[in-house]
Amino acid sequence: MALVGTFGVVLLVLTTLIHYEVLRMLAVGLPTLNMAARAKLIVVIFAAFFAHVAEIFLYAVAFYVLVLYFDAGPLGQASSSSLTLCMYFLGETYTSIGYGDIVPKGELRLLAGMEGLNGLLLIGWSASYIYIAMERFWSDDG
């Protein structure tokens, strides 16, 4: 349990840093871009999307390592755990979709819960940043 909790805290820190740095680079870099203000919104959307994909990928790698090397519990069918299965499951967990077709067992449930909360917070952070960017750049083009 302590190992999975440690993974969770490390992932929380890493994903928050990734998100912070992406949004900070947007805040610093967008005003210097020589493009239409509305096009800058597209840059914001894609940057936020790719930050979320990178964060989901980190969780997937951690899950895969915990399943494969630390026997923290199976993800779905014990014989079918793969990195793509982890990406799928953690993508739906991060976004709080939760179809329920894959269920973690054992200590992995702790990390899945932590990721769900982390994803909710980071998606909310992106939404508020996108709203601020829309407010700022939408009216710049008239």
TrEMBL record:
In which domain of life is the source organism classified? Bacteria
Instruction: Spell out the SUPFAM superfamilies in the cross-references.
Output: Voltage-gated potassium channels
The question of whether Amino-acid biosynthesis is a record keyword is answered with no
Q: Which organism is it from?
A: Undibacterium arcticum
Give UniProt keywords alphabetically. Answer: Membrane, Transmembrane, Transmembrane helix
Q: Does the keyword Transmembrane apply?
A: yes
Give the residue spans that cross the bilayer.
6-29, 41-70, 116-134
Occurrences of domain Potassium channel (ranges)? 57-135
Instruction: Report what the protein is called.
Output: Ion channel
One protein family per Pfam: Ion_trans_2
